[in-house]
Structure formats: C-alpha cells, structure tokens
Specification:
It contains 15 helices and no strands. The protein is mainly α.
Length: 298
C-alpha cells in the first residue's frame, strides 16, 4: 500500500465518522446536554459529584444522539424531498440505511443502560421513555396531526429533568418547573421554524406542520398564548426558593422580550418577524439557564 492509498483510506474513514456524527444532530445534542447539565447542577444540593456528572453527560448524549439518528432513519424519505434536509447522510446516500439503523439502536441502548447503571434508575427509565416518545410517537404523528408539535415538546422538555434526577433530585415542584419552562419555550420556537420553512414542510410530506395548514391567525394566537404562559412559569424557580432576585428580574425581562417578539410575528406575520423570533428563542433558553445557575440559592 502506497502513501497516497493510505491517505485516501484515512480520509474515507474520517468522512464516515463525520457522517455518523451528523446522524446525531450535534447542535440539538449539545443543547440537550447543556439543559441536562443545568438540571444536574440545580439538583445537586450537596456539592457537585463530578464523576456522576460525567456519567450523566455521556449517557444523556448517547440517548439524545440515538433518538436523533432514529428520527433521521424514520424520516429519510421525507428528508430527501426537503431542501434543508436533502443533504443529510441518509437521503444523500452517504450512509447505508441498515448501517444507520444499527448505529441508532446501538447507541440508544448503550446510553439507556449506561444511565441505569451509572446514574439512577429513574434517570434511565425516563431516558428510555423520552426516546420512545420522540422516535415512535412524535415522529410518525408529524405526518398525521397538527398536535404533533405538542407531543414533541414533551420529550424536548425532558433533558433538565434527566439531569435533575441523575444528581439525586426528587420528583418535586422544581422538576416540574424545569419541564414547564422548556415545554412552553419550545412551542413559539417550533412555530417560528414552521413559519420559515412552511413550503419545505409541505414539499417533504409534513403538511400538518405547515402554517398554511394550521393558519396564520391560529398560529399567531398559539405563539402569544405560549409566550404569555412562559412569563409566570419562567419565574417559578424563584417562587420555589431555588433562585434569587437576580434571576427573577432578568428572567422576567427575557420572558417579556420573548413575548414581544412573538407579538411582532402575530402582528406582521412575515418571514422576517419569524426569523427574529427564532433567533431570540435560541438566545433565550441558554441565557435563562445561565441566570438560573448564577443565582442558585445555596
């Protein structure tokens, strides 16, 4: 084997790794990890156990990546018809379908088992339930009902709950506060995406998720509704005595700003307003979680 052939082989293997990584939707997986680790930090009342934190991160990352890979496998034919997803590994034939399925199932099972053994039983159980709900309930519902987004927001709100329970936190009011914050945050976020990619959703076979199907007026009302609910929900950590005044004031400011962007989209019903709402939604969550960590009441 000459040097050039060896270099080609290394390049191909590197490319394969990149494609497998793409199956896990790295940006979403990173967001899942960030929210889970915040949940862990907030649930750790007797100091951080760094080993346990590492185990929680590894297990959660594997399950999140596996869920995303399963989602891409199940939606591979839809992805092939959508402009924003046609270059994903499966529709572009960069990875064989059976290889993708084996990879998705393997890392999902390993991640769930990892959490069961090395964190807590409840964390492993919740991770398994989250994966099943995301891949086998939410994913097929996307072609069948406009309520799929509501269903999808449930597993989407699970990561901080997983972190909280992994750290030893119980099933208490703060756990539900975490869940509610992420649940209500997601809805305007999802609707902004649907507004921007309306035609692509129809092209890909997801007309139930398109704004044309749900109607601009109905979608506008939903955005205002969920943004409004997020305002009182976002300050629950202070109400419950978990965070202090800094979080209360800054959290309210962030939430009212989110509501303002939602109201702008409801008023103008334009692509530009939808993009502004989407951009702020991406900033809102990490900012709120960072404030929560900074202002945690010891």
């Amino acid at each position: 084997m000459n040097i050039q052939t060896a270099e080609v082989g290394v390049s191909e293997r590197h490319s394969k790794v990149v494609h497998y990584l793409a199956l896990t939707k790295p940006r979403i997986t990173v967001l899942v990890l960030v929210t889970a680790l915040v949940g862990f930090y907030m649930g750790a009342n007797e100091g951080l156990d760094w080993t346990l934190l590492l185990h929680a991160a590894i297990g959660t990352g594997l399950v999140a990546g596996g869920a995303s890979a399963l989602n891409q496998y199940l939606e591979r034919h839809h992805d092939a018809r959508m402009i924003r997803t046609k270059d994903r590994p499966l529709p572009s034939k960069k990875i064989l379908e059976n290889e993708a399925l084996l990879f998705a199932v393997a890392i999902s099972i390993i991640g769930i088992a990892y959490l069961f053994v090395l964190t807590t039983t409840i964390t492993g159980g919740l991770a398994a339930l989250t994966l099943l709900l995301y891949a086998f309930v939410y994913t097929p519902l996307k072609t069948r009902t406009t309520f799929a987004t509501l269903v999808g927001a449930v597993p989407g709100a699970a990561p901080p709950v997983l972190g909280w329970t992994a750290a030893g936190g119980g099933v208490d009011a703060m756990l539900w506060a975490f869940f509610a914050i992420l649940f209500f945050w997601q809805m305007p976020h999802f609707l902004a995406i649907a507004w921007i990619y309306n035609d692509d959703y129809i092209r890909g076979g997801f007309p139930k998720l398109s704004i044309k199907k749900t109607g601009e007026l109905s979608s506008s009302r939903q955005i205002i509704f969920y943004c409004s609910l997020l305002v009182p929900v976002s300050i629950l950590p202070t109400t419950l005595g978990v965070t202090g005044t800094l979080y209360l004031v800054a959290g309210l400011l962030l939430s009212f700003t989110y509501l303002g962007y939602g109201a702008a989209l409801a008023r103008y019903r334009s692509q530009s307003a939808a993009r502004r709402l989407l951009r702020f939604s991406v900033l809102y969550l990490p900012a709120l979680l960072l404030l929560m960590m900074v202002d945690k009441v010891v």
